[in-house]
Amino acid sequence: MNPTIELLKSHRSIRKFTDQKIPHELLVELIRAGQAAATSSHVQAYTVIHVKNPVNREKIAELAGGQAYVANASDFLVFCADMKRPTEASERTGANVVRGMTEQLLVASVDTALMAQNVAIAAESEGLGICYIGGIRNNPQAVSDLLHLPEHVYPVFGMCLGYPDADPDVKPRLPVEAILKEDFYTDDSDQVAAFDDAMQRYYGERRGGNKDANWSKNLTPLFDSKLRAHMRDFLTQRGFEMK
């Protein structure tokens, strides 16, 4: 395999970082790499907040569920879906702008995720470690207030970046046969059962691991309750009305 594919397949979430700081010039280049990602109709519906204030970093760490590495990483970014900039740009041309459409929410969210993943890959190519922080959606209004986010902008996730001070194992993924289907959707319960066995072994054998779990069991918290039920009202209040 070529080095790019090997890099992609070696991804791990890093939650422990050294004290070494990322040079500002490198951080800017990572953002430029992020901007090179595909974007729907060239809308570029994202904004990245580089949270430098240590007090704010501590607040976000707490709001995200007590994730200390938010405060301890060299740098912390919040990736925001941003429909304010493109809709206002269109409005300045004289267009009769319609806001709050569901497709606008989807475009902004997808654009943001694609941009962030480019940043992650670029960072890892430079020997950095990253960890996505979806926990900022636990308290999205408080995070929005802290970052002074205007209407039609919402925080999708955060990202810790820094030089790794840990070497975790690469976590297995579902078999390709479960993900890649030919011509039409087919049942993949056999592949899922085999993957559950693989994950059970992984948790039992990984460094320092005695976890009795598998993939299916780990999904339980996502589906046996109304996870982040506040998000619909929050998005509506921010102008993403999902019309």
Give structural notes:
The protein is globular and about 60 Å long. It has about 240 residues and is α+β, with helices and mostly antiparallel strands. Helices cover about 45% and strands about 10% of the residues. The protein has a four-stranded antiparallel sheet, with helices on both faces. It has twelve helices and four strands. It has helices at about 5-10, 25-35, 55-65, 70, 85-90, 100-125, 140-145, 175-180, 190-205, 215-220, 220-225, 230-235; strands at about 45-50, 75-80, 130-135, 155-160. The longest helix is centred in the middle third of the chain and has 24 residues, at about 100-125. The chain has two domains: about 5-170, NADH Oxidase (3-Layer(aba) Sandwich), CATH 3.40.109.10; about 170-225, no CATH class.
